[in-house]
Structures are given as C-alpha cells and as structure tokens.
Design goal:
Elements (H helix, E strand, L loop, with lengths): L1 E2 L17 E2 L16 E6 L18 H4 L7 E4 L2 E4 L2 E7 L2 E6 L13 H13 L14 E6 L2 E5 L4 H7 L28 E3 L8 E6 L13 E6 L5 H6 L5 E3 L7 H6 L2 E5 L6 E6 L8 H9 L3 H7 L5 E3 L19 H10 L6 E8 L4 H13 L3 E8 L1 H9 L5 E6 L5 H9 L9 H12 L3 H17 L4 E6 L2 E5 L2 E2 L15 E2 L2
Parallel strand pairs: 3-12, 17-18, 17-19
Antiparallel strand pairs: 1-6, 2-3, 4-5, 6-7, 7-9, 8-9, 10-11, 11-12, 13-21, 14-21, 15-19, 15-20, 16-20, 22-23
Helix pairs in contact: 6-8, 11-12, 12-13
C-alpha cells in the first residue's frame, strides 16, 4: 500500500511540557537589515537539566528546549502523520521507504541526506545512552538506497515506527556534530533556529533564526529565548514584562489582573493534562474489582469543583489517547464499590500507599479522595516526595500507587507501552497487550485510532489506572502575539509565532 502526504509542516508533538513565551517591543521579522530584531521569550516551568540532545536526555520536558533546533522526519497532526523532512513514504510489507525533502541543510551547512538520516536512526536505535531505543527496536535495518531515499526493514510495528519518526526518535542532527563533546549543550539540527552563544546552559537558552532554513514561513521571529520560571511566580513574570505567553495553572486567581494588563486568556481543552493514579498490579490492586471499587468511590465532579476551581473535566479514560471524550467517567456509587470489594474478598476493606509530588495540587486532591474512599472501606496513605524520587520509589516497590499528571506523548504507541509496563509494575492485561500490538502494527491512521480507542475503553472499564479529570490549562497571551498553538502541555513549538507592534 502506498501512503503519500504533502503539505506544510505542522507542530512537533513530543512528551509531556508547560511553556510560556515572552517578548518586549517585539516586531514581526522583515527583510530590512536595519529593522529591530523581533524576540519572543519562552518561560518554561520545568527544566530539562543541562542536556539538549533529544536522543540522550531522559527528561520528557526537553522537547520544549529542542524543538526550535530540530525538525522531525514526520510530523504528528492529531491522529495522522504529515510530511516533515520526509516528504512522502511508502509502506510495502516489511519495507518502509522514506523520500527525503531535497535541498535541506543542517545548521553547519552539511546536507540532510539519506546517509545522515541513517546515521541518526542507527544512533537512536543502538546507542546505549539513547532514551528512544525502544521506539525503534523493531527496525531491523536502515539503508541509504539513494541520496534522498532511506529504506527501513521493519518486521513488526511499522505503524509505531512511523509515528516515532514524528517524535524525538525522528529529530535528526548533524552526524559531524553529534560525535562532539559539546553536542548536548549546543546541538546542531535542521530546524528553524540555531543555538546562540548567548545561552546559559541550564538557565536560559537563546536561539536565532537559521538563514538557510527550508521553510522560512514558520520563522515568525528572529530570536527565541527560553528561560526557567517558577509556576507560582509566572504571573509576576507576565506582569513585569519578562514573558509574553505564560500558563497560570498555579495561580488562576491572577487571570483578571493579567487581563487588565493587556493579556488575553487562551485555553486548549483538548490538550492532555490529566490527573491520574497508576497502580501496581500485585496484592489487592492486582484485582480489577478492587481498582474498579476505587474508581467508583471517587466523586470526580466535586473534586473538580471544590479543589480545582471547576477547570477539570471528569475523565476516567486516558485523555491523551483516541476515544477518550466518548468514554463516560463513572458517577460515584458507594454501594456498588462496597459490593465489588466484597466480591473480591476484601469486605473488611483495603489499604494501600500512594506517592505524590510534594509540589503542586496532588496532595490536596488525594486528601479529598482519601475522605471519599473512607466511606467505601478503602484507606490510602499519602506519601509526598520530591518529584525526582516518585517514579523510582513506585517502580521499585516502595509504593502501591503513583499519583501524577499524564500529559500524553506524540503518538499513542509509546504511551500505551509505558502505561502497560513501566507504570504498571507487577502485571499487565492480556487484552490490553493484544490491542497494543495491533495498534503498533497498523499503519492506517483510522485503523490505529479505532484500535487505541478499544484499548482506552478497556483501560477505563477495568480501571487499569484511575483517571480523575483533565485540566484545562490557562495561557495568558500578550497583545500582539499571534499564532499560539499548544498540542502538548509544558511545550509550545515556536513555529508560526509572531510578535506584532
């Protein structure tokens, strides 16, 4: 079967991030060399350490820092894939042929040709430091069959591999550069902007427009500055003129004041920012009836209204996966929850430990849930920890559950794999595993979406994890800034952003 996609580049969707952008006295770029430089400053509420190599940095939030520098081979647009550095592609059995866009160069002037792409794919698949190895593990071989054609042999999971090329695994850098020691702090890609020497690694990254970029239409500003801002003080950064776009999730009470200062409120309810509890699949939580009892014991709407100021839409399925909006969250039913516990052999109740970040609203949400579940006979012990300790504590058996925010992924396949493995220590579900394999193999977008919708239905029905609600993130945008698009939280791709007078 031949699949052909032609069009303009869309947003690169990656990893789960909150981003903010800012500029003072910014103007749209013009060709006049004497015109003022146009600037947008992006304030990130999460840091990515001191590594800006998308292949070796395990922090999902790095996407917000690397997207100005790197184009991807393909581009995710909702449930479909479009052209990026690859203009079109063919899928015939185990063979995927990528037809590269001609005339594209890396920031060092070297060509983005088939040999360069093969070198990047092999690095992403084989390098021991690679954090995206799993995304390409079914790629048996990658071969440059001509200057502009790359042939992949993929015995299984073709759909997942194609989707991976729209994420970090598909971000290609100059082969001459990624062998250098300073590549992680000054990466060289083929994206719209290059890393400036004005950058202060770990604090403030500065990017300038690449004159040789193949699609100058997306370079709405000359200079981008990404700096770390505290979520609680983001309103001050907006009001003080340090940033032009900022999420005020932590301080929604400041929205009226910021609007009065000349900002507009923009929201993206379709973006996944879901409060969700992952659960180990051993002990009492290994029984789906116990997990279902937990889900039925929660009053999602009241927590949204009373704890999250009504900005969170009840959602039991995974918001970041297809079909979520059509899967109704269960209403609270204490009697039904008690009956499920008794049927599972726990009529005397169940007790389990859950870890949660010591920062943010997680502990407050869990305290509300704790009170609701007491009526069912379920006791939860809340253990707030530093963010860096959460996942390791959970997967190593130090807690039965992990409360966090799920922000999705650039494609369904890696997210489904993570939900079924890393985030569910102690066991899985045969039906979920089968659907996951089918979704990874499928290459037709409609077929993949249908499979992952079934996966999502099964996830919610068996309370494989307990979803609470999806928060609508509020972004404040300074007057004159146009083109804001948010496909994933904690990450604004600057392509298309402009700053007017």
């Amino acid at each position: 079967m031949r699949s052909k996609f032609l069009g303009v580049i869309a947003l690169i969707a990656v990893a789960a991030l909150t981003a903010t952008a800012c500029s003072t006295d910014g103007q749209s770029p013009v060709d006049d060399g004497d015109a003022p430089e146009s600037v947008i400053r992006i304030g990130m509420t999460t840091e990515a350490g001191s590594n800006y190599d998308p292949i070796t940095n395990p922090n999902a939030f790095v996407a917000g820092y690397v997207s100005p520098v790197f184009d991807t081979l393909l581009v995710a647009d909702g449930d479909t894939l479009g052209p990026g550095l690859v203009e079109e592609w063919d899928v015939e059995g185990e063979r995927i042929t990528l037809h590269l866009r001609e005339g594209v160069t890396f920031h060092d002037g070297s060509p983005v040709d088939a040999e360069a792409v093969v070198a990047n794919l092999e690095r992403a698949r084989d390098d021991e430091r690679s954090v995206v190895r799993r995304d390409l593990e079914t790629v048996q071989s990658a071969t440059a069959v001509s200057t502009t054609e790359v042939e992949l042999i993929v015995p299984s999971g073709s759909g997942a591999v194609l989707a991976a090329l729209a994420g970090r695994a598909g971000m290609v850098g100059s082969p001459a550069a990624f062998v250098e020691e300073d590549y992680s702090i000054k990466p060289i890609g083929a994206g719209p902007w290059t890393v400036s020497d004005d950058s202060v690694v770990g604090q403030r990254m500065v990017y300038t427009a690449y004159d040789g970029y193949w699609n100058p239409d997306v370079q709405g500003v000359d200079r981008i500055e990404i700096q770390l801002v505290d979520a609680q003080t983001a309103p001050n950064a907006l009001l003080g003129g340090q940033i032009d776009i900022g999420t005020v999730e932590a301080r929604p009470d400041q929205i009226p004041t910021i609007e009065e200062a000349g900002f507009s409120l923009q929201t993206f309810p379709e973006v996944a920012y879901q409060h969700l509890m992952y659960m180990a699949k051993d002990g009492p939580l290994g029984d789906p009836r116990v997990r279902q009892a937990i889900s039925l014991g929660i009053d999602r709407q009241s927590i949204s209204d009373d704890v999250l100021q009504g900005a969170c839409v009840p959602q039991a399925a995974v918001q970041a996966l297809p079909g979520a909006d059509g899967i109704e969250a269960p209403a609270r039913d204490v009697d039904a929850a008690k009956a499920l516990l008794a049927e599972a052999g726990f009529s005397d109740g169940v007790e389990f430990d859950v870890v949660v970040s010591s920062a943010g609203p997680g502990s407050t949400i869990l305290q509300a849930i704790q009170g609701q579940l007491e009526a069912v006979g379920i006791t939860i012990n809340i253990n707030p920890l530093a963010r860096a300790q959460l996942l390791s504590t959970y997967v190593e058996g130090g807690a039965d559950a992990y409360w966090t925010v799920n922000t999705g992924d650039f494609d369904s396949a890696p997210l489904v794999a993570q939900l079924s493995t890393t985030m569910s220590p102690g066991g899985s579900d045969a039906d979920l595993d089968q659907l996951a394999a089918e979704g990874a193999d499928a290459t037709d977008p409609a077929e993949r979406a249908a499979i992952y919708t079934k996966w999502n239905e099964r996830f919610a029905e068996g309370a494989f994890g307990v979803g609470l609600c999806n928060l609508t993130l509020p972004y404040m945008v300074r007057e004159g800034v146009e083109g804001l698009q948010v496909k994933m939280p904690l990450h604004i791709d600057p392509r298309g952003l402009t700053m007017g007078e």
